[in-house]
């Protein structure tokens, strides 16, 4: 592989690499917009773009099963959940000036520093490593399924228990207690919800 | 394909998510940033799994299996996380992380953003943390 | 039961009584009095039995070693010779009398249970000292007596006098006990044992290297315990305790422990001529000084206290002449009549409502109020003044005879100088003793002025005890001086003609001169009314006494003396009176020599502690405070800030780890 990698330079990219780079740029841009935009709903929508871009990257890496799972669960379920969350917390539609906390510059410093460190290390370690994408797909549904149900059955079943626990936990957490419900009833009598006014 | 491309993209996505976690005020936006970080890790896992499945004689496809697990756990996480954010929002009337400062010294439970029913809970919390 | 078992029971019974008294004192008040009296009485009976079995013959020795204790073995040893047997009887008799007397004297005292238990404990410790054949075990009893004395002197701890006196008694005796302990250890190191018999054997075989050093160190402890010059100052102040305590501890037993100790180890002291001379000088100074001071005191109990010091001086004088038979003989008779004097004084204080002789001399008919105390006290005072045929005469004459024996060079036991010192001082003291005894009697019972207050009859038990003690005061000397040599070393204790005539003569002179002086001065009494009287004369005797002691200083401006021109002592002593009243300024000397330097050192230490040490302490507290305040500013409660700091640190660490790993 190291010998083979010697013949692949960064200055002569293959088609897959070009496609990966372009989609990667789109994904990264969408991600940056997700964390910087001042409109909360837009952030959720840009997140959809970023996650979808990642699904494309998975496809380019021949991991097709992961890619479809990504589309199904992230784009389909998680983003919808987040949008519901935004709606239930009465997130304002439109630009909100205080979307970023005062911690922004510290966050930027830390993020840039860690990005520099990570990129430096990763590039330094893997600049000659080459992924052979020809041949049978590494992440086809058959391959993934076989490995999942041959080698990973026990963690898979344990994970189902975890998901069940998370399900129950989420229900318990979002249930209203009696006292809270009583409050809600009394608050319904007031002409306008205070929270909306405050927000 | 050079392994460096997905690896660098993953690192950059991770740091973007990191920035979001540290800089965003709304708890749901923070959760979204966490999703970004998780996805960056997933990309890393998939890329290295593809590379190793070619390089090694036998492989367990552990990278892809772990990616699937991560996705499942992320789904669970976002469910629980949103439930917590909703509960906090219901009790405090806000989901801004930098307003939840009960652990600080000299914390005033009667902040301007808290309404009447929230006061009792906040006071209880302040007592519990004190 | 064997003699050994009986002898072991003697100290054990009062100890058990004390423990039971302390445990049951609150829960079962009805048992306190029997628990106080009966064990002591039983111990007395057993002590008599032990003495009867021992019979003055060979000493009874019994040893058991509980456990090895290191280099020099400490053994539970009994060594009962004639001295021990007889002194134990004295201790038992006086302790029983005092316990009986206390049931009346502290009739209504709320602290009676602990008081009685402490007296029992004290009695037990004294028995231990008397019977013990091992010096370490003896020291245990010695120190228990010290601490009991501390508690009992401070029985009226509400009054500042009692508090100060108990502390003083404790500290001064401890001052002597430190060299005493060092001396004991040095002695044991040289001999290789704490056993008295072995030590005496080593002395007999002349194998001690430093007899003088050891003897002088031991003498310091003896001086502290037996109230000899210069460590006697605690005894007059200890009169702030209840009268029965004074009778038991400060007259008959504890102060006798030092004399008894020297008597036991006399061959050791005889091995050092210097120690004998020091002992003689100490005795002489003590005798004369205390007799002069006694003549100037106003508090009746302080007179008796100084007289105790003087009589103890006689005993140490006898020891200095190498005649322990005479010393212990005087110890026995003195124990009887001095206990009687104190107990009678307690009755008088109760009846008169005051402890001041000046106030008593202005009361008419006090003797008719307390006829029992009057007669018994007269007997005891005659014994004290050594008038034949009272017991004090025989014992004192035996002391003087021994001194004359040595002075005229008939013995090798002690240097002649010691003999002359003791003889001359003894005669002078005999004169002074008779003088202050007469003064006490005249002032207390021959008062003129207002009628003495009537507080009803004294408790029967108190009067009965007086008569019990009057018997030995009257007759012990005359009956015993022929028998005692069989129990002791065999020295003849019969009075010699020369010293008898001389001693009785000077005693008579002292008495007559004092009477004359009193006739001269008592007319002045009516002109200067004086008096300090207890606020509640109808209370029980202990309460009256406590109040009388507390009232003395406010009334007269001094604890010891009163500005009374009708006092014959004032006329007799002349310019010396002022100094004698305060014990020849010895307390002031101690204050200048020890108390002030110690206080100065203490204030220096306090200054250093406050200004130097505390600075560091405050800095050690303040620096973390500042750091904490700085760190606290970081605790904003904002989770994002925390995570930012955490991740920044992680990045730094990771980069550092990578740099180290790549060798950059």
TrEMBL record, chain A:
Topology versus the membrane: Multi-pass membrane protein
Annotated PANTHER family: NADH-UBIQUINONE OXIDOREDUCTASE CHAIN 6
Transmembrane segments: 18-36, 43-61, 67-93, 105-123, 152-173
Job of this protein: NDH-1 shuttles electrons from NADH, via FMN and iron-sulfur (Fe-S) centers, to quinones in the respiratory chain. Couples the redox reaction to proton translocation (for every two electrons transferred, four hydrogen ions are translocated across the cytoplasmic membrane), and thus conserves the redox energy in a proton gradient.
Species annotation: Streptomyces hyderabadensis
Catalytic activity: a quinone + NADH + 5 H(+)(in) = a quinol + NAD(+) + 4 H(+)(out)
Main location: membrane
Protein's name in the database: NADH-quinone oxidoreductase subunit J
Taxonomic lineage: Bacteria, Bacillati, Actinomycetota, Actinomycetes, Kitasatosporales
Assigned protein family: Belongs to the complex I subunit 6 family.
Top-level taxon in the UniProt lineage: Bacteria
UniProtKB keywords: Cell membrane, Membrane, NAD, Quinone, Transmembrane, Transmembrane helix
Automatic annotation (TrEMBL), chain C:
Membrane topology: Multi-pass membrane protein
Subcellular location per the Swiss-Prot or TrEMBL entry: Endomembrane system; Membrane
Coiled coil: none
Membrane-spanning intervals of the chain: 6-24, 36-56, 76-100, 112-131, 137-157, 169-188, 208-224, 245-263, 275-296, 303-321, 327-352, 373-394, 420-443, 464-484, 496-518, 642-661
InterPro entries: NADHpl_OxRdtase_5_subgr (IPR018393), ND/Mrp_TM (IPR001750), NU5C-like (IPR003945), Proton_antipo_N (IPR001516)
NADH:quinone oxidoreductase/Mrp antiporter transmembrane domain boundaries: 132-403
Protein origin, superkingdom: Bacteria
Keywords: Membrane, Transmembrane, Transmembrane helix
Main location group: membrane
Gene3D superfamilies: 1.20.5.2700
Domain NADH-Ubiquinone oxidoreductase (complex I) chain 5 N-terminal: 68-115
Protein's recorded name: NADH-quinone oxidoreductase subunit L
């Amino acid at each position: 592989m190291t010998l083979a990698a010697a013949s692949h330079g960064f200055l002569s990219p293959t088609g897959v690499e070009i496609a990966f780079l372009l989609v990667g740029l789109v994904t990264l841009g969408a991600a940056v917009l997700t964390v910087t935009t001042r409109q909360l709903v837009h952030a959720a929508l840009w997140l959809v773009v970023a996650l979808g871009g990642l699904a494309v990257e998975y496809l380019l890496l021949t991991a097709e099963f992961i890619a479809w799972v990504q589309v199904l669960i992230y784009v389909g379920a998680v983003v919808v959940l987040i949008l519901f969350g935004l709606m239930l917390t009465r997130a304002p539609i439109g630009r909100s000036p205080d979307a970023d906390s005062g911690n922004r510059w510290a966050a930027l410093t830390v993020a840039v520093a860690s990005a520099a460190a990570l990129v430096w290390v990763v590039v330094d370690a893997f600049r000659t490593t080459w992924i052979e994408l020809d041949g049978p797909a590494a992440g086809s549904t058959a391959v993934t399924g076989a490995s999942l149900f041959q080698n990973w059955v026990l963690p898979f079943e344990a994970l189902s228990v975890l998901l069940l626990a998370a399900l129950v936990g989420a229900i318990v957490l979002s249930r209203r207690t009696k006292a809270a419900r009583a409050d809600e009833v009394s608050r319904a009598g007031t002409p306008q919800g205070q929270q909306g006014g405050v927000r | 394909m050079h392994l460096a491309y997905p690896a660098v993209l993953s690192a950059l996505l991770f740091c973007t998510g990191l920035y979001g976690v540290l800089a965003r005020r709304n708890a749901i936006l923070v959760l979204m940033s966490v999703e970004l970080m998780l996805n960056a890790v997933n990309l890393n896992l998939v890329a290295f799994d593809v590379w190793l499945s070619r390089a090694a004689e036998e492989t367990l496809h552990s990278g892809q299996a772990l990616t699937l697990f991560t996705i499942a756990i992320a789904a669970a996480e976002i469910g629980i996380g949103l439930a917590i954010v909703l509960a906090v929002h219901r009790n405090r009337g806000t989901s801004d992380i930098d307003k939840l400062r009960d652990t600080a010294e000299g914390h005033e439970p009667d902040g301007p953003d808290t309404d009447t029913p929230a006061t009792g809970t906040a006071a209880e919390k302040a007592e519990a943390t004190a | 039961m064997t003699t050994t078992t009986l002898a072991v029971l003697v100290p054990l019974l009062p100890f058990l009584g004390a423990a039971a008294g302390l445990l049951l004192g609150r829960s079962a008040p009805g048992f306190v009095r029997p628990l106080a009296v009966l064990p002591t009485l039983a111990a007395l009976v057993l002590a008599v039995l032990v003495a009867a079995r021992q019979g003055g013959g060979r000493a009874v020795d019994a040893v058991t070693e509980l456990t090895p204790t290191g280099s020099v073995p400490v053994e539970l040893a009994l060594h009962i010779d004639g001295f021990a047997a007889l002194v134990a009887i004295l201790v038992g008799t006086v302790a029983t009398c005092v316990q009986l007397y206390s049931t009346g004297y502290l009739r209504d005292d709320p602290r009676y249970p602990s008081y009685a238990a402490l007296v029992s404990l004290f009695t037990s410790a004294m028995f231990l000292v008397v019977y013990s054949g091992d010096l370490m075990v003896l020291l245990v009893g010695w120190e228990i007596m010290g601490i009991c004395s501390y508690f009992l002197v401070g029985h009226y701890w509400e009054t500042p006098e009692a508090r100060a006196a108990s502390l003083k008694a404790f500290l001064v005796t401890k001052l002597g006990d430190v060299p005493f302990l060092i001396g004991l250890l040095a002695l044991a190191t040289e001999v290789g044992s704490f056993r008295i018999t072995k030590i005496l054997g080593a002395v007999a075989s002349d194998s001690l290297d430093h007899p003088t050093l050891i003897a002088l160190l031991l003498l310091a402890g003896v001086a502290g315990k037996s109230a000899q010059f210069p460590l006697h100052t605690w005894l007059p102040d200890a009169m702030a305790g209840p009268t029965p305590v004074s009778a038991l501890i400060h007259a008959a037993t504890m102060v006798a422990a030092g004399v008894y100790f020297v008597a036991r180890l006399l061959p050791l002291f005889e091995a050092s001529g210097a120690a004998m001379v020091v002992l003689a000088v100490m005795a002489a100074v003590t005798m004369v000084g205390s007799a002069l001071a006694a003549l100037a005191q106003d508090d009746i109990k302080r007179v008796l206290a100084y007289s105790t010091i003087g009589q103890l001086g006689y005993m140490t004088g006898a020891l200095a002449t190498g005649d322990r038979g005479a010393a212990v003989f005087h110890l026995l008779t003195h124990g009887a009549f001095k206990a009687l004097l104190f107990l009678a004084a307690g009755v008088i204080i109760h009846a008169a409502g005051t402890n001041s002789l000046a106030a008593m001399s202005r009361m008419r008919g006090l003797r008719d109020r307390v006829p029992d105390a009057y007669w018994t006290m007269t007997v005891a005072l005659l014994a004290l003044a050594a008038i034949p045929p009272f017991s004090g005469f025989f014992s004192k004459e035996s002391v003087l005879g021994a001194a004359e024996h040595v002075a005229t060079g008939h013995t090798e036991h002690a240097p002649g100088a010691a003999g002359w010192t003791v003889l001359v001082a003894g005669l002078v003291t005999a004169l002074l003793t008779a003088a202050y005894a007469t003064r006490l009697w005249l002032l207390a019972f021959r008062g003129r002025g207002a009628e003495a207050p009537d507080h009803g009859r004294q408790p029967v038990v108190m009067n009965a005890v007086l008569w019990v003690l009057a018997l030995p005061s009257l007759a012990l000397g005359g009956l015993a001086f022929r028998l005692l040599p069989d129990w002791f070393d065999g020295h003849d204790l019969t009075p010699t003609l020369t010293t008898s005539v001389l001693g009785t003569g000077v005693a008579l002179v002292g008495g007559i001169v004092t009477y004359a002086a009193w006739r001269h001065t008592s007319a002045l009494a009516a002109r200067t009314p004086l008096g300090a009287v207890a606020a509640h004369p109808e209370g029980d005797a202990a309460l009256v006494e406590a109040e009388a002691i507390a009232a003395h200083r406010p009334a007269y401006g001094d604890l010891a003396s009163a500005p009374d021109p009708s006092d014959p002592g004032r006329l007799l002593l002349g310019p010396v009176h002022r100094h004698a009243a305060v014990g020849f300024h010895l307390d002031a000397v101690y204050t200048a020599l020890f108390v002030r330097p110690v206080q100065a050192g203490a204030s220096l230490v306090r200054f250093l502690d406050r200004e130097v040490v505390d600075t560091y302490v405050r800095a050690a507290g303040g620096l973390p405070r500042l750091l904490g305040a700085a760190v606290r500013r970081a605790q904003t409660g904002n989770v994002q800030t925390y995570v930012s700091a955490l991740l920044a640190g992680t990045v730094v660490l990771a980069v550092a780890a990578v740099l180290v790993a790549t060798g950059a």
